[in-house]
């Protein structure tokens, strides 16, 4: 049995006619994925820009997240990838983001523009980082597609478009 997904029912602010302009399939998959994360672990997503993955290698976090969940001073932050490998980075309060060590994480994971990362705070100053690639499907991507497929089938909705 073949199921084809229809994501046109997922709306964003300012959109009309139940259609979305999907500029990044990774962004859409990340938005769906983060809805599956437990609420006790705060999280946010970040779409990779050229300055995040080449050149400057500085990654800013959402200011509201920093104010609510991170220390009010510079501190080391650990990033844990999907294989459980840990990377030490430096969080700079003045930049609301990562500097030292971020370059190593980015290069080690071959991050490129438009990849989307979901940062999930699992301990004080420790993030689990989920990577949703723009140009290929990861295990998370496949799980998100399957999960959505099951939900749609369970709800008896007509599934007529593929992303």
Quick recap:
The chain has 163 residues and is an alpha+beta fold. It is built from 5 helices and 7 strands.
Structural class: alpha+beta
The CATH topology of the domain at 40-134 is what? At1g16640 B3 domain
Estimated helix fraction: 25-40%
CATH superfamily of the domain at 40-134: DNA-binding pseudobarrel domain
Uncertain residue segments: 1-22
What distance separates the N and C termini? 18 Å
Count of individual beta strands: 7
Radius of gyration: 17 Å
Q: Could you name the CATH class of the domain at 40-134? A: Mainly Beta
- Globally, the shape reads globular
Proper CATH architecture of the domain at 40-134: Beta Barrel
Helix count equals 5
Strand order of the largest sheet: 1-6-7-3-4-5-2
Average pLDDT for all residues: 78
* Main beta sheet: 7 strands, mixed
Q: Strand-residue fraction?
A: 15-25%
Order of helices and strands: HEHEHEEEHEEH
